[in-house]
Amino acid sequence: MVGVPFPTLALEIIRVAAAPTHFRALVYRGTTFSAEEAQAEGLVDATVEPGRLLDEAIAVAEALAAVSPEVFAITKHQICDPVMKRIREDANRFDSAIEEIWTAPATLAAIRDYVARTFKKTKG
Prior knowledge:
This protein is mainly α. The chain has helices at residues 8-17, 20-29, 35-40, 53-65, 69-103, 105-123.
């Protein structure tokens, strides 16, 4: 755990991606996952083999392109509008204080330590 607050945008991305049962644990603990674990936890929709990303992305884009643009637009707004509202409101309330915390020398040291521990953990 690093011990810093998430910027509003990052927090809302986690809120959308994470199952409600995992959201607090992810935010409080800063848990990291392999690609396979992230998919199993529902944090990512899919993983692809190296070299297949472009082909997979095109296939997904083609499937989405088959949906009526009006239907897709309304659905996207229904999903995104509550998130965008929270981002706008909470960014105004919290992000200047979050930036202050993130740029403090003690925080930068904690982030360096976390990265060093995490890198060592994934390579060892």
